[in-house]
Design brief:
about 160 residues; mainly alpha; Arc Repressor Mutant, subunit A; three-stranded antiparallel β-sheet; 8 helices; elongated
Length: about 160
Amino acid sequence: MGALRSRARMDAARISSVNGATSPQVSDVASTTTASSNGTSHTFSKSPIPIREERLQKVFEMIESGKPCTIQALAEQLNLSHSRLQHLFKQQTGMSLGHLLTQQRLFRAAHLLTHSNKRIKEIAHAVGYEHASSFIRAFERHFAKAPRLFRQTQNGKTA
């Protein structure tokens, strides 16, 4: 059985290595940066995505605020059903809103793992996961490392 790959890696058309760690900006959906299992970062580039829908600009602003948010909460703020919001988002950007929210949570978690001494359970809750076990599974799928191992390798320690 082959290794699991994150959806961001499968969706990416072109991969180019970037030195150093950078954090992604939600408003720049066209370019997303992820950390790989060997500690380097990769940028996944797509053609620029023009956002014609004003409501979607508001979605990006709410996500960029850094507060954990759900599709349902975003939809309520825009007075849309969650299914209509997801449809509009996918139609305009070509990517799933749920996937973007999960990706942003995991990037915030990676940042907290490397820049804070919070326990993994506290980080899981801070980025919007109710259960630490769900967070750990999602983190391992995306970064191909457990959060504890990710923290150790990012801080220069060996496992």
